[in-house]
Amino acid sequence: QVQLVESGGGLVQTGGSLRLSCAASGIIISNNAMGWYRQAPGKQRDLVARIFSGGSTTYADSVKGRFAISRDNAKNTVYLQMKSLKPEDTAVYFCNFATWTRNYWGQGTQVTVSS
Predict the structure, then answer these.
(1) HEC states along 32-55?
(2) Pairing of strands 103-105, 77-82
(3) What is the pLDDT of residue 77?
(4) What is the pLDDT of residues 5-20, one digit of tens each?
(5) Cα 102 to chain center, whole Å?
(6) Is 53 left (phi over 0), alpha (psi -120 to 50) or beta?
(7) Angle made by CA atoms 87, 89, 90, in degrees to the nearest 5
(8) Could you tell me the CA-to-CA distances from 50 to 16, 56, 57, 71, 97 in Å, in that order?
(9) What backbone phi and psi angles, to 5 degrees, belong to 14?
(10) I need a labelling partner for 80 at 20 to 30 A (CA). Which of 47, 60, 96, 115 fits?
């Protein structure tokens, strides 16, 4: 059974930093692509960053140069390091693992950036 548990969200001022964690069970993250998404109130859930099994990464244009996705294979955990945070980064952040037939999501962690 796949389980994703996010942590690390919180309230931070503009320009601050946070690191989100996604602890995975039921899958081996190094064998799969893992993603971070975010959803602001009243908006759709959008991809923020993805790390592929080979280690390559992709980012949404809005976070390039500020966010970094990484993983610790020994801990089976994916991270999202967020720097230079802006009020528009405020959202619930979700960890994602997808197969051809199903998307798996964590419960989400709230990130609030105050101006």
Answers:
(1) CCEEEEEECCCCCCEEEEEECCCC
(2) unpaired
(3) 98
(4) 999 999 999 999 999 9
(5) 18
(6) alpha
(7) 75
(8) 22, 8, 6, 11, 10
(9) -55, 135
(10) 115
